[in-house]
Write a structure and sequence with these properties.
It is an enzyme of class 5 (isomerase). InterPro entries: Aldolase_TIM, PRAI_dom, RibuloseP-bd_barrel, TrpF_fam. Helix content is 29%, strand content 20%. The protein has seven helices and ten strands. An eight-stranded parallel β-barrel has the order 1-2-3-4-5-6-7-8, surrounded by four helices. Strands 9-10 form a two-stranded antiparallel ribbon. Helix 2 packs parallel to helix 3. Bound molecules: ligand LARABZUK.
Amino acid sequence: MSDGAPAHIKFCGLTRAQDVDAAIALGVDCIGLVFAPRSSRRLGLEAGHALRTRVPAHVRVVALVMDQPAADVAAVVDAVAPDILQFHGAEDDAFCRGFGRPYWKAIAMGGDPAAALASLPAYPGAAAFLFDGHAAGEPGGGGLAFDWRSLPRALDRPFWLAGGLDGDNVARAVAIAAPTGVDVSSGIESGPGIKDAARMRAFVEAVRRV
Ligand SMILES: O=C(O)c1ccccc1NCC(=O)[C@H](O)[C@H](O)COP(=O)(O)O
């Protein structure tokens, strides 16, 4: 749970240099780059590397993967040097630990939230959890929210809230769930992977007003 500090902000699914630059100028804490095969925001390794080089050291780069072979994840690590790996699929803790990076585990809250929460002890190595609104087996980034009240009142590590957030609802979400941070993709877009400057700004301002 939050310690009362402002929620951290992660913009996810960036594909354009100008959006990365704008996000950094707005002061976000994390930039998410998607390498999952089933994503319309998927980056190739060269494009991911090029975006990564624009990000200063105080902003963390999070590489998203989903049910990919270890060699593919290792190639992302080699090419992009992410600060964090975010796993979105059915990967287990041993797999997620195997790349020499801290990892966050996305938890799909869109189907059976109780079953989703029951899976948390299976990830003792996760540095954080990211609760997302999609159902298990489905990709993220679809703007699907879940019932924020279904999250536990106490967790033993940081957690991020994701799924269907935007500048209009993020303040309420933070007030209800008190997450460590908030993650947004489609809620700041004009189209898949195309971030909108005004929506990005509105999101950051809404979080900072909480
Ligand atoms: O964004 C994608 O296309 C994606 C594809 C496959 C796995 C994960 C993906 N995104 C995960 C994210 O962290 C999104 O930011 C998160 O699902 C929130 O998305 P949105 O509901 O659109 O804000």
